[in-house]
Amino acid sequence: MAERLDTPREAGFRFFKRRKSSSDSFGKFAEATARFMGSPKFILYMTIFVVTWIMANVVLYQVSQKYAWDPYPFILLNLAFSTQASYSAPLILLAQNRQDDRDRVQAQQDRQRAERNLADTEYLTREIASLRLSVQEVATRDFVRSELRDLVESLREDIREELHAELLASQKSASSIDESAEECTSPDSAHVSGNEAAR
User: Fold this and answer.
1) Which residue from 13, 46, 140, 175 has the fewest beta carbons nearer than 10 Å?
2) Does 130 have pLDDT greater than 60?
3) In terms of pTM, does the model score above 0.70?
């Protein structure tokens, strides 16, 4: 793989590159070990191992003392238990520390999430309150309908009055036309009009 040109090279030439110690991989190993040591399977395996160790040493000691590698006081078994205890305690503590770190990060993320949720809730509450205030100022559909009904009724009344007035005016003009027509067609008016023509 080609080296990146934007990063400087390490000083000097090394045949063997140093391996970076990864505390994370060791921490994972510690957690796996602590998890296994806290399981019933580990207790069962340890019980089988101890019983086998003791039985083998007792039987071999009875057969011949030179074949028993750890006779009765079982000093080698005690040394193995001490070594296991001296390693398991720090591994368990390391696993607990890692779990505490994870819990702390999780609690911090939960706190941040709760703060964001609270801020969002407060924002939405303010928005809902402003919408309620603006909706109170806006006319509702029923109010607009009632106002339109009132306007339509008043327009109908105005139109009726205008039509009634026009009808009365047309009736008056029709009656005056009829009266003038009757006057023109009556004999007295013809006699008067004839006298006027003679003069």
Assistant:
1) 13
2) yes
3) no
